[in-house]
What does this fold into?
Amino acid sequence: MSSEILEILDSEADHDKTEVGNYFVANYPPFAYWDAETAATVPALLEKPATPDVPLGVYFHIPFCRKRCHFCYFRVYTDKNADQIKGYLDAGIEEFKIYADSPLIKGRKPKFVYFGGGTPSYLSVSQLQSLTSRMKELLPWDEAEEVTFECEPGTLTEQKLAALREIGVTRLSLGVENFDSHILEINGRAHRTAEIYRAYSYARSIGFPQINIDLISGMVEETDENWRENVRKTIELMPDSVTIYQMEVPYNTGIYKEMKAEGKLVAPVADWHTKRGWVDYAFKELEKVGYSISSGYTAVLDPKKTKFVYRDQLWAGADLIGLGVASFSHIAGTHFQNLAEFTQYLEAIERHELPVSRAMTTTVEERMIRELILQMKLGRVSQEYFSQKFGVNIGERFQLQWNDLKAKGLLSEEGDWLTLSRDALLKVDTLLHAFFLDHHKGTRYT
Ligand code: SF4
It folds into this structure.
């Protein structure tokens, strides 16, 4: 008897081309199992007594961008004026008030805060100052170990970066994606090479505790030569961490729309084998100059100093309040997502309602699998962690999967730890499906 792992590995060659669909496994169970009926139970969930021992995080979604990148699948708007942006930020604060006043959340202090998007750095200095001071009044950040802020290099000025540091941002994440202006342009990015260097040098001079650079392996027109240059230029800058995503082409991207219009099934980007090879090359080059690989997507320069609290807490079951249009929350074992349409979101807040559109209350077993698959993305899992937290011996529970991975040289076991090989880590998102409950397999991940 064998697990689905072998089927996945056997069919790799048939699925090597980049076709439309999601590759990245962001959560579990899949979104297809979240529904409106459960969304209606979220207000009652917030009436439960507080759980001060469960770490809490806050995510604020800023859905505005200068331009829509061709590969973007997020809920973003490029046409909102200052009044509309102000109205949106006010609504986000009203939403936050509902949580901050609820018995379940009241008095808890966020351990981590994350501004994502969209482009949080699209906001003006005064918008940022007003937004964050109102957030802190509702739930003070004085115990937050990390405040992350995602930035598009072309939106950063020295004054804005100084304001971000002043507000308490500790982890600045720069969406570089590629260092070549032509590749940035044909992929629809708003920024160019010169803006990357300007933003990076301002950010360094201001002294953020952590600067992360995001890259994408496999943008349209990416070549071996360009990729090597990206890696070389990243190493020249020596950021505290480097995050590399492999280009995927979900249904709601500009790239897919073009493919559909032209009747094409294969996206005009490198195949999976090549994209993985590029990440592998980058990881090896980064390791040569002292970086350590801390997940299938991340290299860090000093693992003792450079943490990623948001990722590590979320992947270990922390509660997360997701504010803003289309944001995802995970509170007391229930996953939920906000309304994904701007006007509907604002109207719900005007009615003083939680703007939740779909939700799923997980079982203990689903929470265990969720943590297992998310932690596998770190490259290794502790069996002791799962037996302590869930009373489950994951070695036995998933014996077939582990044995198949071992037989293919993709997993080793040493004491408590089950460790993925580099090859397995680079394709970890494809392997995770074999750990899903049977009835969750084969569903579309949107
Ligand atoms: S900057 Fe990010 S969020 Fe905005 S359009 Fe591009 S990929 Fe999407």
Notes: The mean pLDDT is 94. The first strand starts at residue 56 and ends at 62. The chain has two domains: 1-29+364-446, 31-313. Residues 84 and 90 are 10 Å apart (CA to CA).
